[in-house]
Amino acid sequence: MLIPSSVRTCVIYDPQDGRIVHIHKEITIAGGLERTEAEIEARARKFAAKPGLSGEGLKALFVKETRSKGRHHKVDTATLKLVEVELPK
């Protein structure tokens, strides 16, 4: 059985409104190479890049957990914490 030695999550977000653009979770298995936060952020930014969007001005934030089934989040830009938001119907 593979056992994770660490799980780190980097959120790429718009600092203007806290909208999350991309969530990147990095899982290191015991004995595996553990990347630095700078390396994880670079990978998250690479995966967040979309054609026609440079990603310039976006910020990165490392968080403990991002997923709650059926719930959506954004970054509270004042506290730099995730907050739950309701999606428009």
List keywords for this structure.
89 residues, mainly beta, 3-stranded antiparallel β-sheet, two-stranded antiparallel ribbon, 1 helix, 13% helix, 39% strand, globular
Question: Brief description of this entry?
Answer:
The protein is mainly beta. Helices cover 13% and strands 39% of the residues. The chain has a three-stranded antiparallel β-sheet, with helices on one face. A two-stranded antiparallel sheet has the order 4-5.
3D architecture notes:
The chain has one domain (4-85). It has one helix and five strands. The chain has one helix spanning 37-48, and strands spanning 4-13, 20-29, 59-63, 72-76, 81-85. Strands 2-1-3 form a three-stranded antiparallel sheet, with helices on one face. It is globular and about 45 Å long. 11% of the residues are buried. The mean pLDDT is 88.
- The helix/strand order is EEHEEE
pLDDT < 50 stretches: none
For the biggest β-sheet, the strand order reads 2-1-3
What is the C-alpha radius of gyration, as a whole number of Å?
A: 14 Å
Percent of residues in beta strands?
35-45%
- Name the assembly state: single chain
Let me know the number of strands: 5
